[in-house]
Structures are given as C-alpha cells and as structure tokens.
UniProtKB/TrEMBL annotation:
Pfam family, one: RPA_C
Keyword Nucleus applies: yes
Key words, A-Z: DNA damage, DNA recombination, DNA repair, DNA replication, DNA-binding, Nucleus
A GO cellular component entry from the record: site of double-strand break
BP GO annotations: DNA replication; double-strand break repair via homologous recombination; nucleotide-excision repair
Principal subcellular localisation of the protein: nucleus
CDD domains: RPA2_DBD_D
GO molecular function list: single-stranded DNA binding
Residues in Replication protein A C-terminal domain copies: 188-258
Superkingdom: Eukaryota
Region of interest (Disordered), ranges: 12-34
Compartment(s) where it occurs, according to its Swiss-Prot or TrEMBL record: Nucleus
Protein name per the record: Replication protein A 32 kDa subunit B-like isoform X1
Amino acid sequence: MSFTQFDGTAAFSGGGFMPPQATQTADPSFNTSKNRDVQTLLPLTVKQIKDAFVSANEKSEFVIDGVDVNNVTLVGMVRDKVGRITDVAFILDDGTGRLNCNKWFDEAIDANEMERILDGMYVRVHGRLKSFQGKKTLNVFSIRPVNDYNEIASHFIECIYVHVYNSRLQKAHVDVGVTTQPHMTIPTNQFSGQYSFDGQSSTEVKVLEILSQPSYLAREEGAHLDDIARQLKIPVNDLMLAVDNLVQEGKVYSTVDDFHFKSTANA
C-alpha cells in the first residue's frame, strides 16, 4: 500500500530539527531564523518543503519553522525513475506530497547504488534542497532502501516532534524576548592543502575515513571534533575548515551539537 492511498499520513506534515540546549539572553536584535547552523541534517516531509519560505540568505535558501534549512532527510516511495548517463531522476512520494529528486553519479559506485532502487520501493534519502524559478528540488547525496517499515512511522514521528519543538521555541522568543546564543560559525574560505583526484583535500578524505570507523558509526552522536583532530594530529581550526567543506558538499552533518559529526553515506 502506498502512502498516497492512506489519507491519514497527511497528519504527518510537521518537521524540522531540535536544536541543543539554548542559552537564554535578552538580545531582541538577534534573528531567531539564524540561531542554528545549517549543517544539521533535518528530518522533513515533502509538504514542509513545498510550504517552505524561500529566503535570499547566502547560507540557506529555505526557512522552515524559523530555522535555516539546507541538508535534509526524507522517507518515501520512489516513482517515475528515469536513468541517464550522468544521473538518475525520480519523484519521491511520502504521502504529503511529491518532490523531484536527482542523484548525480560522482563515481561508478553511485550508478551501482541506483540500479537496485526501483519504482514502488520505499527509501530514505539524504540531500540538499534547491530552488530554481520557483521549483523546489532535492539534490540527493545518498539513498538506501527501507528494510524495516517501522522506520517510516519513526521518521514521521521525528518530523512531528521537532516541528512542535521549533514552533514553540520560536513562539517563546517572540513572547518573552528569549533568544538562543548564535553558535560558532565556521569560516567558508577555501581549505588549503593537498587535494586528491576527485578534488577532495587529503584532510577531508581522512576525516571521512575516520567517520566510517565502526566505533563512530555505532554512536548516534558520531565523532567529536577533538577526537578527529587528535587522530589526525592537526589543529582544530584547520580541521573545522575541512569539516565545513564536507558539510557544504553534503557528505557529513552535525548531530547532537556543533562539535559532533557523522557521515551521510552511513546514516
């Protein structure tokens, strides 16, 4: 049974993310829509994306529940899959709406990954939202089949929970003037260093290797920046530049706070 055959799923139209514990301060000039780095991988529904406000912010094109949104995760059914030489296009239907998606092939493993994704299959996707001429799409970084159908319900519950959390948080800021301290921002200047054949710096490659270690994959919070820096024997500031580049490319995302990260390929 597909989601579109079950009207009750329309109730699962919430979403967003839960920011870490807020530090309260009276600074009414601080814009609450900027109170969280857009590095977090956010659980959303298609309806939320369709209803999202498209901003002119350089860091993020979308704002949902007062929060900047870039990298997202969705669960739904694959429809109208079309394979091409350089990419695969498909529609993701989660019962709240349909979203056009593209998975570009960076290497042969991407093409092999998409061969086992079929129409009518439930999948979880991670990707970056895009808007062009009023049309919202998803640039998919990773996709995998849903083997346990409890994951579908779990995803929608997450969306509802964080939507309510963020909505109440924004209301509290308006009513009481309480704001969240801005998190440390990571400079976006280009990371210098040796680069591999695919344009990835050697430090970025090593970071991805560390995040792929079983010990970090098993942890919900992933790896702390200090742990990664200690293993690579480099300053944390240099590491943060590499991590920021990986975040912008959708290859890693922050978890419980701005200092813990996981790989999207293994999420």
